[in-house]
Design a protein that fits this description.
The chain has 843 residues and is an alpha+beta fold. The chain folds into three domains: 28-487, no CATH class; 506-613, no CATH class; 625-719 and 723-758, no CATH class. 45% of the residues lie in helices and 12% in strands. The protein has 31 helices and 21 strands. It is globular and about 95 Å long.
Length: 843
């Protein structure tokens, strides 16, 4: 039966207009969302937390690096890191990042807001591409795209700028799977798998798991027709698309396999049940309410999921469409009726949840955008079916929403404060914000009731009213969340703009880019903003040698390097010459004592106090003694930062190899670890050092003049694959010493030029694999294939799909019955070209 709601209520009903609507409407909503904040912050979009301290400096720093011709080693990322390996998770292959290459460096921070507008529009458009296959009225797919783009997941993860790329590629991946199984069209899965893995390997892993589950469920339910040919095709295309990403994936693999965070698998009871009871409520409420702010949990303060992206709210509609769909008696979409409960179960069982991140036990719900998309599909399928019982969905959703609000908002809580027992009401962390969230959820349900009344009565204004109300709601609740998030920021916008983003150019220190700097009690990633080497860094993906080193000295290094002032010896060991402090807390106003010994106040620059390290040791210094790794481990962890200035740490093999130029330390138990000894050790290390160490696009060069013996020269640059060393033009061995750094042997009585060249590991191999895949893909596409004639709309839910009798659904899906094609689709003339007959749903 033809759907009674007209399709010409927005921008027209021509096929191209639907794509235009799916892009422009969310773009306008996003402009309404971001423009006020851009105006408020003088042309910048600033948020709080990770967005400010990671996304902005990462974009600008790597943008500048690439424009300057450096694709290899970043000396301004932590102690040093591979650009491809460390930034492929963030943005190195994002098309949105590459758009910034059209602009000069100062413009990049200004582009963050406009790029977000483009991302939200693309999220909606890609969702439309997937959803439109399933509905007769394509305006419902447009609504679905808006729901997906401005879902709780989409708005929550404004905090994480790089998550929206995954939201864009995922619907295209599912659409490609459908295209193969329904039409046999070649190539689309290769392209989408390639894009997904290239843009972000982490999210691709989850998407691949979901796509396999999706395929199996649809196959088991009879929606996909199984043939051996299609099985081979889908496996071949998926593998080819994945392999084609080798130029990004293989260098990334070389970096991430060194990271200890990946070897954390679920086990025991923690694989079956979450150890935090509030997390279950957090998961459930995320489907009914706008998302909590990252790092500011409100509904469930102790669910231990501050940055986990637990967000799946569909704006305005909430779970109404999902519950209504589950109640709908139909056979055509029974696959979705099975898939949804399976996904909800995955959300509630830790080991199943971890399957979407290759069974890593760290809790994240960063696959919820996938669940969100199928929830959107269920919602628009109900809109496209005249027999949907929305009353059931409304009542059920309203009841659960009110129930959760009452349970959390009114639950009495008795506590003892100063020995006095007091009772308060409400379990939330921020009561005012909580009730505003409740209001948004309930207002959304009221608006949904209004539009569904129009839908039930087949009102010709239904689509227009729904689009307007949904757009207003999306903009309103998103504005509140982003505005609230901005208020959580520790640092004011004026400071970030003037002293952070624009501050690096005002520094007057001639050697600032040739030495490392420290930042005491400052905003994260100041060194990246100013593009100077530093020991402070908030970046999750760095060489494993950095992880190993910090662990060995007792400094926690999970997602950031933040050695505290107690580890003052690390500053000299890591060639840290300058220290910046904004709030004046590094030095006692009265006693003039600094938080670390032997630092002298220099001056004030860029509103920061600048200090110099009196015990500074340049890159490339030498030792007289060595200790073995076993001896190093015998030393107290708290003293190792000072021990590293006394003797070089070698393996047993290295100790034997270099015993002719280094003496083994006799008894490390006699070492003293006082501040005076620290200064003396730094003076000893300064007796023979390199001069004029300079980093460039290919690595770094240094010089040293040796005396009457060979020397093993140490550089506090992370040891990774990809380095090649030359001494006076002759290639030499690189030794991994001092738990993760590099050293080379230089001859006696010589003015030595030491050159370290860096090439991204596996990049050449990856390019070769990618090139081979391109050749295979071209050959594959040139093989002629007869495709099924496209029947747009044949998968749409209609009256014939309702389970009223024993219809053979599989024969229905494959039938060529003309009445199953929506009347608004023009029939192709008999002499139409093969290109038109083969027109793809991925136009």
């Amino acid at each position: 039966m033809e759907n009674a709601i007209p399709q010409n209520t927005l921008l027209g009903n021509k096929k191209g207009h639907y794509y235009l609507k799916a892009f422009l409407i969310p773009a306008i909503i996003a402009i309404v969302l971001f423009l006020p904040f851009i105006i408020m912050d003088k042309g910048y979009f600033l948020y709080y937390g990770d967005f400010n301290v990671q996304q902005i400096p990462f974009y600008q720093m790597i943008h500048d690096s690439i424009q300057n011709g450096n694709f290899g080693w970043s000396n301004t990322t932590d102690l040093g890191a591979d650009i491809v390996g460390s930034y492929s998770f963030y943005m190195i292959a994002s098309p949105f990042f590459w758009l910034t290459m059209l602009f000069p460096s100062p413009a990049v921070p200004h582009l963050m807001g406009p790029l977000y507008v483009l991302k939200f529009a693309c999220c909606s458009l890609s969702a439309f591409v997937y959803l439109k296959r399933y509905v007769k009225n394509k305006d419902y797919a447009v609504i679905g795209g808006i729901l997906y783009a401005f879902s709780g997941f989409g708005v929550y993860n404004i905090f994480f700028n790089h998550f929206h790329e995954a939201m864009i590629t995922f619907p295209l991946l599912l659409a490609a799977v459908d295209e193969i199984m329904y039409t046999g069209r070649k190539g689309v899965l290769v392209i989408t798998a390639f894009l997904s893995c290239t843009i972000n390997y982490y999210f691709f892993a989850g998407q691949a798991v979901f796509a396999i589950l999706y395929w199996l469920v649809k196959l088991a339910c009879g929606d996909f027709e199984f043939t051996f040919k299609k099985l081979i095709q889908i496996i071949f295309e998926a593998v080819l698309g994945f392999a084609a990403s080798a130029f990004i994936f293989l260098p990334t693999l070389a970096t991430i396999t060194e990271n200890p965070r990946i070897s954390n698998s679920p086990s025991g009871w923690s694989a079956l049940l979450y150890g935090w009871e509030q997390r279950y409520m957090h998961i459930i409420e995320s489907f009914f309410f706008p998302p909590d702010l990252p790092a500011r949990p409100n509904f469930t303060p102790d669910s231990n999921a501050k940055w986990a992206s637990v967000a799946a709210y569909l704006p305005m509609f909430s779970m109404v469409g999902v519950f209504s769909f589950m109640k709908l008696r139909k056979k055509k979409y029974k696959w979705l009726k099975y898939l949804l409960p399976m996904l909800f179960l995955c959300a509630l069982v830790p080991i199943l949840n971890s399957a979407f991140q290759l069974f890593n036990a760290s809790y994240y719900a960063r696959w919820y955008y996938m669940l969100t998309l199928v929830m959107v599909l269920a919602t628009i399928l109900c809109l496209d079916s005249e027999r949907a019982n929305f009353k059931y969905g409304l009542n059920f959703t309203f009841g659960i929403t009110v129930g959760i609000a009452a349970a959390i908002g009114l639950m009495p809580k008795t506590e003892k404060v100063n020995g006095i027992e007091t009772t308060t009401y409400g379990l939330m962390e921020y009561p005012e914000r909580f009730w505003i969230y409740v209001a948004f959820a309930l207002i959304g349900l009221v608006l949904t009731t209004i539009v569904l009344y129009l839908w039930k009565n087949k009102n010709k204004n239904f689509m227009r009213v729904t689009s307007i109300l949904l757009s207003i709601f999306c903009a309103g609740y998103s504005l509140y969340i982003v505005g609230t998030g901005k208020d959580q920021g520790q640092y004011k916008s004026d400071f970030i703009i003037s002293d952070v983003i624009d501050g690096g150019s005002r520094l007057e220190l001639d050697d600032i880019k040739d030495v490392r700097s420290d930042f005491y009690d400052c905003m994260d990633n100041m060194g990246m903003f100013w593009q100077i080497p530093t020991i402070q860094a908030f970046q999750s993906v760095v060489p494993g040698s950095i992880m190993d080193f910090y662990e060995s000295v007792g400094v926690e290094r999970s997602v950031a390097s933040r050695p505290e002032a107690d580890y003052y010896g690390l500053r000299s060991f890591l060639s840290c010459k300058y220290l910046f402090n904004y709030n004046g807390k590094f030095r006692n106003v009265v006693t003039k004592e600094t938080k670390m010994p032997y630092w002298t106040y220099l001056n004030k620059q860029n509103n920061f106090d600048v200090y110099t390290n009196d015990c500074y040791i340049p890159y490339g210094f030498t030792y007289d003694e060595y200790i073995t790794e076993k001896q190093y481990e015998q030393c107290s962890e708290s003293n190792r930062h000072l021990l590293l200035l006394k003797a070089m740490v070698l393996t047993d093999e290295q100790a034997e190899k270099y015993s002719d130029i280094l003496t083994k330390a006799k008894n490390i138990y006699k070492y003293e670890y006082t501040e005076e000894e620290y200064k003396k050790d730094c003076e000893n290390r300064n007796k023979l050092t390199c001069t004029d160490t300079k980093f460039d696009n290919g690595g770094f060069t240094s010089h040293i003049t040796t005396k009457d013996s060979d020397e093993l020269v140490f550089f506090s640059v992370p040891y990774t694959k990809g380095w090649t060393a030359y001494v006076n033009g002759k290639q030499t061995d690189i030794e991994k010493v001092n738990v993760g750094f590099m050293a080379v042997r230089v001859p006696a009585n010589t003015r030595c030029e030491i050159r370290f060249d860096y090439k991204t590991p596996n990049f050449t191999l990856g390019l070769g694999v990618t090139g081979a895949c391109v050749v295979v893909f071209i050959a594959y596409m040139l093989i002629p294939t007869k495709l099924k004639k496209k029947k747009e709309g044949k998968h749409a839910l209609s009256e014939d799909n309702i389970e009223t009798d024993e219809i053979d659904i599989s024969s229905y899906a494959n039938s060529e019955v003309e009445e199953n094609i929506p009347q608004e689709i023009e029939k192709e003339p008999e002499n139409s070209s093969q290109d038109k007959n083969n027109e793809s749903d991925l136009e």
